[in-house]
Amino acid sequence: MLSADVFTGVVDELASHFERTTGHEVTIIYATAGTIPSRVQNGDAGDLTLVPRPMLEDLLRQGRITEGSIVDVARSAVGIAVRRGAPKPDISSVEAFGRSLALLCQVDSRFARAARSKDLYFFHRSYTLRV
Fold it and tell me: Could you tell me the residue range of the domain that residue 113 belongs to?
């Protein structure tokens, strides 16, 4: 199985249950969602490939996955929050969001193993955003 690393917690749990109940061993290769399609294009094969739908659709157009095999198994939502008292950044368009991100001191993506999820944290300068 090839899987985006954002699904590590749930895939590990499901694979463990599958192995216990069927006796079949599951081999999982985790990587960032952006690298999984290139691995498939370069010949890496798996019985399952778990990445965002647009990436699967690209692989389907390239003939790399089986027609009719794409199934939605999850939906994701992304949120943004600001420190209490800080002004809300303008996220009304892609361009405005980009300008707001440019004002940030650091964008940090951490894998929170204890929480078994991938979280995106935005840290801004010690002074308030000037959007």
Answer: 77-131
